[in-house]
Amino acid sequence: MMVEWYVVQTKPRKEEFVLGQLSSRQTEIFFPRLLESTGRVQRVAPMFPSYLFVKLDVDQLGKGVRYTPGVKDFLRCDGEPEPLSPEIVAGLQNRTGPSGIYRRPPIPFEPGARLRIEDGPLRGMDVIFEQELSGPERVAVLLAEVNLQARVVLSRRSLTRH
Which helix (H) or strand (E) holds 117? Predict the structure, then answer.
């Protein structure tokens, strides 16, 4: 019995369905996802669209996994399912934590850094980073207009470097 990690390719946008189908089998499944932010909207998306990692004895359970609804096939090399290094999966699991969701760390801004507001009613304005505030992703900036030094509190996600 040789239990190893393999990559299973799913049909497009069927990762969650296949995850549900395989969860009742004698396999360990890893479905890494990432938190994507676009403006104020956040969503969880597959890190590797159409791919899941499964840990199993491919000789014993591979055929059943391969013919699971929503599965295309295993990634193969020379016609055989190719085992994946356990260090690769462990590295991904360390990055995603127990939730399996990778959250990109915020880019640190230094006080005095010149930034630009990318969304909201002040979009396009140049600002100077002042400090991080309590609360999720809140920062204070100063408007960089010549005659106006007004303090504004924004979401960190609405800023980009100049």
Answer: strand 114-117
The residue to which tokens 């295993």 are assigned: 74
Q: What is the DSSP letter of 54?
A: E
- The model's pTM: 0.68
User: Using one digit for the tens of pLDDT, what is the confidence trace for 66-93?
Assistant: 999 999 999 999 999 999 999 999 999 9
Burial 100-127 (b: 16+ CB within 10 A, else e): bbbeeeeeebeeeeebbbebeeeeeeeb
* pLDDT of res. 145: 64
Report the CATH superfamily, name and number, of domain 3-102.
NusG, N-terminal domain (3.30.70.940)
Given a cut of 70, whether residue 150 has pLDDT beyond it is: no
Instruction: List the CATH code of the domain at 114-161.
Output: 2.30.30.30
